[in-house]
TrEMBL record:
<dbReference type="InterPro" id="IPR050028">
    <property type="entry name" value="XdhA_XDHase"/>
</dbReference>
<dbReference type="Pfam" id="PF02738">
    <property type="entry name" value="MoCoBD_1"/>
</dbReference>
<keyword id="KW-0560">Oxidoreductase</keyword>
<dbReference type="InterPro" id="IPR000674">
    <property type="entry name" value="Ald_Oxase/Xan_DH_a/b"/>
</dbReference>
<dbReference type="GO" id="GO:0004854">
    <property type="term" value="F:xanthine dehydrogenase activity"/>
</dbReference>
<feature type="domain" description="Aldehyde oxidase/xanthine dehydrogenase a/b hammerhead">
    <location>
        <begin position="22"/>
        <end position="138"/>
    </location>
</feature>
<dbReference type="InterPro" id="IPR008274">
    <property type="entry name" value="AldOxase/xan_DH_MoCoBD1"/>
</dbReference>
<dbReference type="Pfam" id="PF20256">
    <property type="entry name" value="MoCoBD_2"/>
</dbReference>
<dbReference type="InterPro" id="IPR046867">
    <property type="entry name" value="AldOxase/xan_DH_MoCoBD2"/>
</dbReference>
<keyword id="KW-0500">Molybdenum</keyword>
<dbReference type="InterPro" id="IPR036856">
    <property type="entry name" value="Ald_Oxase/Xan_DH_a/b_sf"/>
</dbReference>
<protein>
    <submittedName>
        <fullName>Xanthine dehydrogenase molybdenum-binding subunit XdhA</fullName>
        <ecNumber>1.17.1.4</ecNumber>
    </submittedName>
</protein>
<dbReference type="InterPro" id="IPR016208">
    <property type="entry name" value="Ald_Oxase/xanthine_DH-like"/>
</dbReference>
<dbReference type="InterPro" id="IPR037165">
    <property type="entry name" value="AldOxase/xan_DH_Mopterin-bd_sf"/>
</dbReference>
<dbReference type="Pfam" id="PF01315">
    <property type="entry name" value="Ald_Xan_dh_C"/>
</dbReference>
Amino acid sequence: METRNHESGKSYKRVDAFEKVTGRAKYTDDLCDRNAYVAKILHSTIAHGYVKSIDTSEAEKIPGVVKVITCFDVPKNYFPTAGHPWSTEPAHQDVADRLLLTDHVRFYGDDVAAVVAEDEVAAAQAVRAIKVEYEELPFVLDVHKAMEDGAPQIHEKYQNNILAHTSIRNGNYEEASREPGLIKVEGWYHTPTVQHCHIENFICYAYMEQGRVVVVSSTQIPHICRRVVGQALNVPWGQVRIIKPYIGGGFGNKQDILYEPLCAYLTTQVGGRTVKLDVSREETFVSNRVRHSIDFHIISYVRPDGTYAARKFESFSDQGAYASHGHSIAAKGMGCFPQLYPCPNIEADTYTVFTNKSVSGAMRGYGIPQAMFAMESHTDDVAKALGVPPYEFRMNNVMPKGFTDGFSKNVNYYDTFRECMEKGRKDFDYDARREKYAHQTGNIRRGVGMSVFWYNTGVWPISLETSACRMVLNQDGSIQIQLGETEIGQGADTAFAQMAAEAVGIPFDMVHVVSSQDTDVTPFGTGAYASRQTYMAGFSIRQTGEMLKQKILETACELTRQMKENMDVIDGNIVRTTDGEVLMSVGELATEKLYSLTNNGHLTAESSYQIKNNAYSFGCTFVEVEVDIQACKAHVTDILNVHDCGRLINPALAEAQAHGGMSMAIGYALSETLLFDEKTGKPLNNNLLDYKLSTFMDHPDLKATFIENFEPTNPYGTKSLGEPPACSPAPAIRNAILQATGVALDELPMRPHVLFEEFKKAGLIQEGGEANV
């Protein structure tokens, strides 16, 4: 008989919903002592150079100032900041190029001094009172110019400012490209610098307790944060404790170690008193992390029958001033090139290059939104050159069922791409719309476009993948569950509770997830990134749940005299499987076991699981846009995302994830870009007034649907969803504009400034700006 609870697959309300909507949830700032000292950072006002001297005398005179720390005071312990799992092999460790404060300024906004004061006013006044003398050096903001001989050298170890260069060679590109009768399609594609714009800016506070440093931080990666703080302070990692409360979003910005090491150091300089470091929105834009701006160059040689003969790919990733996540983002983008549309003859190169700009790090999609814009824009360009419908061209060339990647060993177990495209085509009424908008004139035009995306789950085999879980049985038969994977607003805790309930055999409402992570208490886990959490945590949850269930059944054997193999835990009850008889509730069992005078025991289970699997997660976007040619403006009138993310643990949360990613992608496509002054390197629009963030007023009704193909490598059949929704809308919007106007836009964001120039080149508007249609 069927004995397993199926608690996953249902749209349960989020476990943290009530606390968050009522304002009861405690975030970092809510927990901080109101009497804490306040720290503020002095950021550089040049893009490149050295700090020659710092005069802190006036700052130190300000009432309430406790301590002023400069770049000349801090220890020279270089540390990495990327939220990657640690490796004991030096070759696989992140680049350690950061100091707590620096005298070698590498971007406008670099950290040169810090103030600790009794209140925010005194701290702000003191920062303004510090006088810095700089030795200015030439700087470079353009990734291509940074690679030239004679360009300003940003880091001594990296010639021509190239942090890393990797390549892929399959077949013989040069020979294959000379095949007679081929059609050559070539394009350059540019993606911008953008910022995450999560609601809660980065914030942390630190204090000392029993000789150890405790940091409470809005971080996605508490266990990784512990290690980096230890490295930065050059103390044993066990002397550092990290606590992560509720977090107000991160999207990858908080997958970097931002100011936790500095805050930890500052508390050691003021006798262990609590020091709070709260970053402003302007600082978040400049001195935290941004998404890599990447330039792509793609050449495709295509046969008249629509098959690829040879393809070439180049990308140039703007890393900014420090390594952070470094080359992994550009490398992931390149890695999908030979997989998305398999071709026997591939030549691919990608470069990650330092510039004197804000530091680039992880952001939702991890290089794939950039790569998909280039690849899927190019796909429409190829289809147009062949005179083939873009949908048909994709159906004929996209990754087939059974495809296996030689490196990751990922297998495409289903014909996912075609299933998703077929569903999207039907649900969006794509063919009818495409025909309707095929021959338009006039100033206002509409068009439809589509794109697909490639994604994988987690970081294996590039880095460690592991998950640990602890479950404790309470007196009433409910359980507490703790994981190193972090809730950052995406609903992970709810999915964990559903999976745990299913594994143990109890109802969903009998699972209590400990949402806060504390490195002194929480089992080791690497945190929230790489769309890994539901997939990876599933292994340890299932394993630990089965362990706890066996302990429950062993106890039931003692209490009921029934054979363990003839019992199961179903819906919170001990059930005899031979006849379905309910013998007792788990609550009755737990109470008896905890308070027994003869055989007392505390039932708990804990385990870790190293995951050596990865999984593809695919899908597509269909979009309709309306273009006002004279106003040089496009807006989305309809959009649909289709995903195969395996079995849905919580359909409502899955849809919410898709909507959030689509929202971010609309802004990425049409409005968002962080601009820099070419004369000074200063960011020009590092605020929410001038940075044109997309809002719900810029969106149509967001629609998402799913193909549920059970992922065979995972115990719950699930795989990544958090980042994929942000990957394909931008090129779909671009391709819709292409159908509406005939103009192929190769630069994001496709804002009026870009549309004006391209429409003018295409003859759609006259020199004075009037529509020529």
